[in-house]
UniProtKB/TrEMBL annotation:
It comes from Halovibrio salipaludis. Gene3D superfamilies: 1.20.120.1760. One of its GO terms (biological process) is phospholipid biosynthetic process. Keywords: Membrane, Transferase, Transmembrane, Transmembrane helix. Pfam families: CDP-OH_P_transf. This is CDP-alcohol phosphatidyltransferase. GO terms for cellular component: membrane.
Length: 248
């Protein structure tokens, strides 16, 4: 019997190893500039190691991780740095402009990975899922910053947690895990959320305006998830309910 071919991931591993040193130097420089304790540098370094492992495991190619996944990986590293700075809220308030600029850069790059995937015909399930999870992590990080800086109350965390509540619902109702069709509405609302959170975090944005910006974003997000859940229930939930009814 022929042995199963093992994917050669040497190219992806080599590329990520070469990226590790610049990331460590840049992140260490940011930590030194902000006066953050060096022990807290462990979080972004651990985040890098986890991301590198996930990418190498998900991209079985000896030519590297590919242009689209490369951009998404850099976006993910930006989120890791943003999340690491949240460990020191008092320093975040001092360097809020720089933090927001980094978040804006991560947002701008969001459209580039998708373009590269289409341009070079390298679209994959892993790449799409990787991009989606980076977006979700960015929204959660931005929501934590808004709450941590006292711009709004804890209700803003619904923006960051709704994606993870959706995933948790799939543990209870398997039909929630069915694949969803591509949706311009879903992508647009995702970008709207991130942009709204970034705008609110700009230091010159009045605090009273935050609610008027984020409340509509939350309502749009709730609407989007409701539409998706309704579609998933019609696609798989009704069939699952009927099957259980027949078995009983």
């Amino acid at each position: 019997m022929a042995s199963e071919k093992i994917p050669d991931r040497t190219g992806a591993s080599r590329e990520l190893l070469l990226t590790a040193l610049p990331f460590t130097v840049v992140t260490g420089g940011i930590w030194w500039w902000m006066g953050m304790p060096l022990v807290s540098l462990a979080l972004p370094l651990a985040g890098y190691a986890l991301l590198a492992w996930l990418v190498v495991a998900g991209v079985p190619g000896q030519q590297g991780i590919g242009p689209a996944n490369r951009v998404t990986f850099y976006r993910a590293l930006g989120v890791v740095i943003l999340a690491g700075i949240l460990l020191e809220p008092q320093l975040l308030a001092v360097a809020q402009w720089a933090w927001v600029m980094l978040a804006l850069a991560v947002l701008i790059l969001d459209g580039l990975d998708g373009y590269l995937a289409r341009r070079f015909s390298v679209s994959t399930y892993f790449g799409a899922r990787f991009d989606m999870e980076v977006d979700a992590a960015l929204i959660l990080t931005l929501s934590l910053a808004v709450w941590g800086l006292g711009i709004t109350g804890p209700w803003v965390m619904l923006l960051g947690l709704m994606r993870y509540l959706f995933v948790a619902a799939g543990w209870i109702w398997p039909w929630v895990n069915c694949p969803l069709p591509e949706s311009f509405r879903r992508k647009t609302i995702c970008v709207w959320q991130i942009a709204s959170l970034v705008i609110v975090l700009v230091p010159i944005t009045p605090s009273w305006l935050a609610v008027w910006i984020l409340a509509p974003a939350l309502m749009l997000l709730a609407y989007s998830f409701t539409v998706d859940l309704a579609w998933l229930y019609r696609a798989g939930g009704q069939h699952e309910t009927q099957r259980h009814g027949t078995e009983t």
